[in-house]
Amino acid sequence: MTEDEKFFAWLDGELTPAEAADVEAKVAADPQLQQLAEQHRALGAQLSGAFDPIAAAPVPERLQAALHPSADLIDFAAAKRARTRPSLAQWAAMAATLALGIFVGTMVPQRASAPVEVQGGRIYAASALNEALDTQLASAPAGDVRIGLTFRDQAGEICRSFTASASSGLACRNGGRWQLKGLFAAPEGQGSDYRMAAGMDPNLAALVDSAMAGEPLDAAAEKAAKDKGWK
Amino acid sequence: MEQPASFDDQLASLLPRLRRFAHSLARDSADADDLTQATIERALKSRDQWQPGTRLDSWAYRIMRNLWIDTARARSRKSAREAPEEEGLNIGDDPREAMDASVDLKRVMAAMARLPDEQREVVALILVEGFGYREVSEMLSLPIGTVSSRLVRGRTALLAMVGER
Fold first, then answer.
1. I need a labelling partner for A77 at 20 to 30 A (CA). Which of A196, A224, B116, B140 fits?
2. Does pLDDT of B75 surpass 50?
3. Using the beta-carbon criterion (under 8 Å), do A47 and B108 form an inter-chain contact?
4. Is the pLDDT of residue A94 over 90?
C-alpha cells in the first residue's frame, strides 16, 4: 500500500488498530494532511448529500412492477401472436366481459335513452348508439358516438367498432339488430379525447383482429353496405 | 436483516439502494432506471444462482455493475461509429433536479459523471454505498490493491473537480 492509499484507508476505517494509530500520529503532526483529511470528509458528505435522496425517494412504479412479472394483466406480445386466430383465452376473456355486461345490464334500470338493451341474454345497441351504428359513416362523425372500423366477420355479418364517451366496443349484425360483441371501459381518468389520440383500446383491437375476415371496408364499401341496410 | 426474509422481499427492500447505485453508474436518470429494471429482471431470472446465507446486496450490485459494463461497451462501439459521446450531465427530466439540490450537490454529481467508469464504480460503492474494500474487491473480482488505488485516483480527481471547500 502506498502512503496515499494508507492515508485514505485510514480515513475509511479500513486499517487495523495498529496501522491506524501510525497514520493518525502522522496526520496529527502534519497540518497539510489534516487539511486533506477535512477536504475528503467534506467530499464524502457531499457525495452522500447528492446521492442519498435517490435512495430515499419513492421507487417508480415500473420498477416495483418489474419485481412481479406475473402481475402483468395484459400480455401484448401474446395478444399479437393470437391475432392470426382467435385463442381460447381471448374468447374466455370476451365471455367474461359479456357476462359482466349482462350483469350490469340487468342491474341498470332500462330507460328509453340507455345505449344498450338486454334481450334473451344478448346485449343489443339501443337509442343513440343504435342510431350511430345504423347511420354514421366513419368519414362523417357526428354526436357522441364515433364509428371506427367496419368489416365482415367470419360468418359474413357486418361488424362495426365504435367509441362512445367512456367506452369503446364492437357490434355485429344479428337478426337485423346490432349485437354487442364487446364493450370496454376506458381506463379510469382517461376521457375519449385521450383514447382517440392513443388509438384503439388494446382489448378491442384484439377482439377486432380475431373477429375480422379479410380487410376492413373502405369508405365506398362502407357506404354501399349502409345503403343495403347492413346486410 | 435479522429474520430470514424471502428472496423477493429482500430484493424489494434493496431497490432504493440499487437505484441509487444505478444513478452513480449511468449519469442520466432514464438510463439509471432502465439499468435498475434490467437488474431486477436479471436477478429474478438468476435467483437460483444466489446462495442463501450470502449477501444478496453484493450479488445484486454485481449484476447491475456487469450489466452496466455490457451497456457501456455496446454504447461506446456505437458512439465511436456515430458521434462523440456527450459530455457532462444530461439534465432532461432528471428527478434530481426537482430535489432542489444545492449547487454543491449538483457539482459533485457532475464531477462523478466525469470520472472514468472504473474509478466511478469504486468511489460509488465505497463512498456512497458504504461497502468495505474487501467486499468491493470480491464484488468486482479485483485485487484489493486495485480497488484501493482506483479509489485514491477517483476521489482525488473528484476533489480537484469540485474545488476546495
1. A196
2. yes
3. yes
4. no
C-alpha cell at A224: 354501399
Please report the pLDDT score of residue B157 as a whole number: 96
Q: How far apart are CA A10 and CA A92, in angstroms?
A: 67
B101 and chain A in contact, CB less than 8 A: yes
Instruction: Check CB contact under 8 Å for A39 and B164.
Output: yes
What's the start-to-end Cα distance of chain B, in Å?
Answer: 37
Contact B33 A54 (CB under 8 A): no
Rounded Cα distance between A205 and A182, Å, is 11
Instruction: Quote the minimal CA–CA distance from A59 to chain B in Å.
Output: 6
Between CA B144 and CA A207 the distance in angstroms is 60
State the first-to-last Cα distance of chain A, in angstroms, to the nearest integer: 89
B20 touches chain A (CB under 8 A): yes
Interval A22-63: pLDDT, tens: 999 999 999 999 999 999 999 999 999 889 988 988 888 889
Which member of A5, A54, A62 has the closest CB to residue B149? A5
Q: Cβ neighbours of residue B6 under 8 Å, at least 6 residues apart?
A: none
| Residue A64 pLDDT exceeds 80 | yes
pLDDT surpasses 80 at B34? yes
Q: What is the mean pLDDT of chain A?
A: 78
Mean pLDDT, to the nearest integer, of A100-122?
61
Higher-pLDDT residue of B57 and A196 is B57
In angstroms, the CA B14 to CA A74 distance is 27
Question: Which residue in the set B20, B40, B145 is minimally distant from A66, CB to CB?
Answer: B40
Q: Which of A183, A8, A228 is nearest to B151 (CA)?
A: A8
Chain A: residue nearest B109 by CA?
A50
CB contact under 8 A, A55 and B20: yes
Residue A184 main-chain phi, psi, to 5 deg = -120, 130
Chain A partners within 8 Å of B124 (Cβ): 51
For residue A147, what is its C-alpha cell?
A: 364509428
Is the entire prediction scored with pTM above 0.90? Answer: no
Mean pLDDT confidence for A109-129: 74
